[in-house]
Amino acid sequence: MPRDDDGDDLARPGILAIFNNVTLGREGEFEEWFQHEHLQERLDVPGFLLGRRYEVVRGEPNYFNFYVTRSVDVLASAEYRTRLNDPTPMTRLVMSEIFKDMIRTVCRQSFRTGTMRGAFAVAARFAAPPDESALKAALQDLAPDRGIACGEIWLAAPEGNLDSSEEERLRGGDRTLAACLVVETLRMQDAERVAAALSGQFPAAAVGVYRLLCEICRGASVANPREERTP
């Protein structure tokens, strides 16, 4: 991963940022699909490296997840587009009946501080492009805090604006964001403190606090749902 603090200009990771709600009463189906099909299916796409899932503690929407890819180009690759346009039967059901209020954006990680991951995440979403230097300064000010694991700036990637996929069609269309500032913390009280600070610094941002549910890395040994599909 690039070292941000010394100005290296290496290729930045791609980020697929997703925020959503779920149809009331369908949470069990959503969890079954996400945990036992969807996460592994996405990590099987070449270039996908990491996926993390969260549920809300404070703010909205109720769910947040993101994927880290080798570069933003992975999220426009033929392999990924093929997957989006050929959803499994369960994915079709979830996308058409269970996903609600979808915010989905292909981003480039433009800056990162810290080397760890945390148990909580503070996500500040921006509908309009923010001053990136102000976001960077905020992360640098937070970096010495021992309760913080890492911080990242995600900027919407123009090359991610492709034609709508079959999955998006089933959802009825998605909203997007211009940028997202994400700070991962070790404990809940750290996240609450960071959220309050960011809300004051960036009043235009929608700030939420999220608790980690799970993480999956490339190479995890989980059954591939597509291997069970009939020809």
Notes on the structure:
This protein has 231 residues and is an alpha+beta fold. The protein has one domain (14-221): 2-Layer Sandwich (Alpha-Beta Plaits). It has six helices and eight strands, in the order E-H-E-E-H-H-E-E-H-E-H-E-H-E. It has an eight-stranded antiparallel β-barrel, surrounded by four helices. Helix 1 (27-43) crosses helix 3. The model is unreliable at 5-9 and 221-231 (pLDDT under 50).
Main β-sheet, spatial strand arrangement:
1-3-2-8-5-7-6-4
- What share of the residues does DSSP label as strand, in percent? 25-35%
Q: Tell how many strands the DSSP assignment holds.
A: 8
- Stretches with pLDDT under 50, minimum 5 residues: 5-9, 221-231
Structural class, please? Answer: alpha+beta
Give the helix tally.
Answer: 6
Q: Share of helix among residues?
A: 25-40%
Cα Rg: 17 Å
Span between termini: 39 Å
CATH class call: Alpha Beta
Report the order of strands and helices.
Answer: EHEEHHEEHEHEHE
CATH fold label: Alpha-Beta Plaits
What is the architecture at the second tier of CATH?
Answer: 2-Layer Sandwich
Mean pLDDT: 91
Task: Please give the largest β-sheet.
Answer: 8 strands, antiparallel, barrel
How many discrete structural domains?
1
What would the principal axes of the Cα set say about the shape? globular
